[in-house]
């Protein structure tokens, strides 16, 4: 399989730098995680030089061919061996081991430089220096911290300590856990108190800002408490730790007595995964969780019960071994950020991936209105386990522990990056999602760099079948030792590979059969639905045709009625037009002449009226002068007589004209 980045190849400067740490981790049985991702950089802890190496994981074609790394130098490196690294959203890196915890501030720029100096400071330095017998067993960032600056530390003295990295010396909250959590650590140790080994966060309570914290003890017991990022020692009161939680149904081995790691998967009901040092996994449901006033109950009145619904035994070797060949193999649980129902199990014999389809059924059951009974899928569908990497071929082979494993979100699918103790990098491509009706595997066919840089297209049925039949069929076998295997071991490996090859190919064929059957059912359903739609459309078409014929008849009838009405209106207008009188040309000229005479008559009437007004004025003026006054006669009698005759003649003419006009109007019907 071609490496997606240049620094993944054997002999790269990045791996050569890490190889200077030697093979000191090969003999250790403890699970470590020395790699983390922030932004587009992969970080790896270099124990020899006490610094952090950073390489780019971008998908650009220019970045794939690069073989360079950046060295992040700490201002205050930890004086102890670091076993785990953990990043947060505010560019802080936690470096912790059994002897302490250190916080490192990462640079915000993602441009690779040769070297950069980063500020670092210890957490609880005075406490861990003064208490050599107290070891750190687990550390995690508090998910509800508003500033993302609170960490929760679990120590071997069975105490949970909440620190604010801005005030690193004194814990903000110190909470004892375990059976003897009401006693001091020295008294508890003298009584043989069990040691807390792991914890994880659960759901946040609706009535407060506190979040569930499940604590796993070395004996396999689980305790429950609630911690908020704002809690302080002054708010602590008795009865805060509840447990050990009762586990149902009862088991003879009490579900193991060698607990090592705990993981809580997000779900409507908290799903706990408990891993033992023998490679056994227990899947449990935390039922009966009190939602109101969770701290008012005593240890004897705890209602929370862990219902173990599944037990999984991991295959820690490539070839099947005898029960007498059991060995200690601590399992480290890590959730998959790309798939909420999948997690990985890393151990010194390799890495397994586990998926819980029951989580999807729990979400469906929580959202459904009819939740009277438990759905059958919650009881019948088992988890899916796949061995992705195997570093121990046989029980007699020395294992190669893993020093780091993470799932990197990437296009077109997530990538699993694994670092072994022999400083080799194993790349595994995972499937993007999970289909509950197909028992598919997690590994997928790797894509080329050019194809990965393109935008993924919608997968077709043929591509799904090719994905099921493609890829590898057995886990990648990583041999960490330089010694050669014997002929008997080689034969066992061959038989085991053949058996796994046959089983997984049969599983792939079964998966393809299920997929094809499901596809046929879907196609048949679509066919039936399309036939129903076709029949419905045919009936609608016939109905439309009948409506069209009826509308055509109505249209023809309406059109005929409209034509009749139009013809009647035309006849009426024709008769009206015939009744209008038609004047000849002579009559039209005479009409114009009469109109002119009428205008002249109006002018004469106006002049006559003015003359009458003047006469009246003259008469009034003459009367005002008096009869005694002598009036000079300016007009003689002859002139007066002529004027009288002229006025009489004009009056007769006007009277004749008026009579003529009146007669013509009567004749013309005007």
From TrEMBL:
- A GO biological process this protein is involved in? protein import into nucleus
Which keywords does this chain's UniProt record carry?
Coiled coil, mRNA transport, Nuclear pore complex, Nucleus, Protein transport, Translocation, Transport
Where does this protein have coiled-coil stretches? 520-614
List the InterPro entries: Nucleoporin_Nup88 (IPR019321), NUP88/NUP82 (IPR037700), WD40_repeat_dom_sf (IPR036322)
Compartments in which it is found:
Nucleus, Nuclear pore complex
Tell me any Pfam family this protein matches. Nup88
* Matches recorded under SUPFAM superfamilies: WD40 repeat-like
> What are the protein's GO molecular function terms?
structural constituent of nuclear pore
Cellular component terms (Gene Ontology): nuclear pore
Which domain of life does this protein belong to? Eukaryota
Q: What is this protein called?
A: Putative nuclear pore complex protein nup88
Q: Which organism is it from?
A: Ornithodoros turicata
């Amino acid at each position: 399989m071609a490496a997606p980045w240049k620094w993944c190849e054997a002999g790269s400067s990045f791996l050569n730098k890490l190889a200077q740490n030697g093979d000191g981790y090969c003999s250790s049985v403890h699970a470590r995680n020395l790699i983390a991702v922030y932004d587009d950089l992969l970080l790896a802890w270099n124990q020899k030089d006490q610094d952090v190496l950073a390489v780019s994981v971008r998908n650009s074609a220019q970045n794939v061919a690069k073989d360079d790394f950046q060295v992040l130098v700490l201002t205050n490196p930890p004086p102890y061996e670091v076993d785990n690294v953990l990043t947060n959203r505010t560019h802080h890196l936690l470096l912790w081991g059994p002897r302490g915890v250190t916080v490192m501030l990462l640079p915000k720029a993602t441009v690779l430089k040769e070297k950069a100096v980063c500020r670092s400071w210890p957490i609880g330095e005075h406490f861990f220096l003064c208490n050599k017998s107290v070891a750190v067993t687990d550390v995690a960032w508090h998910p509800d911290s508003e500033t993302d600056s609170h960490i929760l530390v679990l120590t071997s003295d069975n105490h949970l300590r909440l620190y604010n990295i801005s005030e690193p010396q004194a814990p903000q909250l110190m909470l004892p856990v375990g059976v003897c959590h009401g006693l001091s650590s020295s008294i508890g140790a003298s009584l043989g108190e069990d040691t807390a080994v792991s914890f994880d966060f659960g759901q946040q309570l609706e009535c407060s800002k506190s979040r569930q914290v499940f604590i796993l003890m070395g004996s396999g017991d689980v305790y429950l408490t609630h911690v908020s990022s704002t809690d302080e020692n002054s708010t602590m009161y008795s009865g805060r730790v509840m447990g050990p939680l009762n586990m149902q149904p009862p088991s003879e081995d009490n579900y193991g007595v060698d607990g090592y790691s705990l993981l809580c998967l997000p779900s409507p009901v908290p799903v706990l995964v408990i891993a033992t040092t023998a490679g056994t996994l227990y899947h449990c449901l935390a039922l009966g969780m009190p939602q109101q006033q969770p701290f008012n109950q005593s240890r004897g009145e705890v209602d929370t019960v862990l219902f173990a619904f599944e037990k999984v035994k991991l295959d820690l070797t490539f070839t099947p071994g005898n029960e007498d060949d059991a060995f200690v193999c601590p399992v480290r649980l890590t959730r998959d950020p790309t798939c909420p129902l999948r997690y990985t199990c890393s151990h010194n014999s390799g890495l397994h991936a586990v998926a819980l389809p029951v989580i999807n059924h729990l979400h469906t059951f929580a959202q459904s209105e009819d939740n009277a009974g438990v759905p059958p899928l919650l009881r019948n569908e088992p988890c899916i386990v796949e061995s992705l990497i195997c570093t121990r071929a046989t029980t007699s082979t020395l294992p190669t522990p893993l020093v780091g494993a993470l799932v990197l979100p990437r296009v077109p699918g997530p990538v699993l990056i694994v670092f072994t103790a022999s400083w080799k990098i194993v790349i595994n491509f995972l499937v993007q999602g999970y289909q509950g009706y197909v028992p598919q595997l997690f590994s997928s066919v790797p894509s080329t760099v050019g194809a990965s840089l393109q935008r993924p297209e919608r997968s077709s049925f043929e591509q799904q079948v090719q994905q099921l039949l493609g890829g590898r069929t057995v886990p990648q076998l990583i041999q960490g030792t330089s010694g050669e295997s014997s002929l008997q071991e080689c034969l066992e490996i061959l038989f085991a590979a053949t058996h796994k090859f046959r089983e997984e190919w049969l599983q792939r064929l079964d998966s393809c059969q299920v997929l094809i059957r499901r596809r046929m059912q879907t196609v048949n359903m679509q066919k039936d639905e399309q036939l129903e739609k076709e029949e419905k459309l045919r009936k609608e078409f016939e109905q439309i045709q009948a409506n069209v014929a009826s509308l055509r008849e109505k249209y023809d009838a309406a059109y005929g009625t409209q034509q009749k009405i139009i013809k009647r209106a035309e006849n009426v207008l024709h008769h009206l037009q015939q009744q209008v009188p038609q004047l000849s040309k002579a009559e039209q000229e005479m009409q114009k002449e009469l109109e002119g005479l009428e205008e002249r008559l109006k002018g004469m009437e106006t002049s006559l009226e003015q003359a009458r007004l003047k006469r009246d004025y003259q008469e009034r003026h003459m009367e005002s002068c008096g009869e005694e006054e002598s009036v000079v006669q300016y007009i003689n009698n002859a002139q007066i007589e002529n004027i009288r005759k002229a006025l009489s003649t004009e009056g007769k003419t006007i009277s004749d004209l008026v009579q003529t006009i009146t007669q013509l109007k009567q004749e013309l019907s005007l």
